Amino acid sequence: MDLLKERILNEGKNLGGGILKVDSFINHQVDPTLMDACGAEFARMFANLGATRILTAEISGIAPALATAMHLKLQVVYARKTKPITMPDQVYLTVAPSHTKGRMVELIVSPEYLAKGERVLIIDDFLASGSTILGLVRLAKAAGADVVGIGALIEKSFEGGRAALSHLNLQVESLVCIGNMEDGQIIFCD
Amino acid sequence: MDLLKERILNEGKNLGGGILKVDSFINHQVDPTLMDACGAEFARMFANLGATRILTAEISGIAPALATAMHLKLQVVYARKTKPITMPDQVYLTVAPSHTKGRMVELIVSPEYLAKGERVLIIDDFLASGSTILGLVRLAKAAGADVVGIGALIEKSFEGGRAALSHLNLQVESLVCIGNMEDGQIIFCD
Fold this sequence. Notes:
Order of helices and strands of chain A: HEEHEHEHEEEEHEHEE
Largest interface: A-B, 39 and 39 residues
Number of helices of chain A: 6
Shape of chain A: globular
Helix content of chain A: 25-40%
Distance between the termini of chain A: 12 Å
Strand order of the largest sheet of chain A: 5-4-8-9-10-11
Oligomer: homodimer
Radius of gyration of chain A: 16 Å
Structural class of chain A: alpha/beta
């Protein structure tokens, strides 16, 4: 997706260690016009899956998932990383390693909002190692729901996430793919 | 705002201690159509303030702030509660008590995205004691920015937030106001 690619070229910063800083339009400051365009693109890509719900993980998945949900007219559920007091005692919980946090994080969804038979579309900001998305897949399966598609704004193909998801045999889409970040560069896959 | 009021009446749960559970449409599951309507309403209310940026706090402020930003075509910045590795060492940081977490939380904004002279519109999910919003006001002031308006989806007037903000002499708007939650009730202000 050219719009997102341009923003990464103009504003993205390669901080080393595979960390891409996109704080000025995705992760701290959010550009609503760009995010709406990304949501529209995901909605187009996943229009024919019969998804009934979108699942993402707080914090930075919320904006792209909500933008997509506005176009597909689907409810969004974001997995919480700490259990709020408003959540029932019995929850779906899994743990996943966080690349940027350097530790395991919990992903928690209330059974109230993820039910058997749902067709779940997973949307997140990054597809890197795939560990967060695999955590969301486990939550959906625990609920008896089917994951029908996976979308990420930015894929870092050199971290192997797409291969880690391949056994699921699902449509996996990224709007921009980065193939190499060595030596301070940002090289796209194409 | 009738749409939001109806959802609170139908799905909101008074958990006692002033805690209103709105997990099914705001805080865990998000209804994108409702959120878009709330954003449109905030955009209408604050259309004439000349705001240049929207400021909110992660996590549950992101959805209403983004929906508002889409209508006003303004960048959104969400204050982080933990400093990510992509953020510079020098930041604006304040602490505010969290009602639902029962402890102090940090609110952190990068100087990259909040600058002197900005006209800041603050949007959040709840106006309760006002402590989170006052924290956001302190961050804006630290940056030399002016806060020009404050909007919350749901005000709990019995927690005194509006009074706590009154010295700012700003337009403060809530889409729904709850005046009493004693004895398991949810009584609106009107």
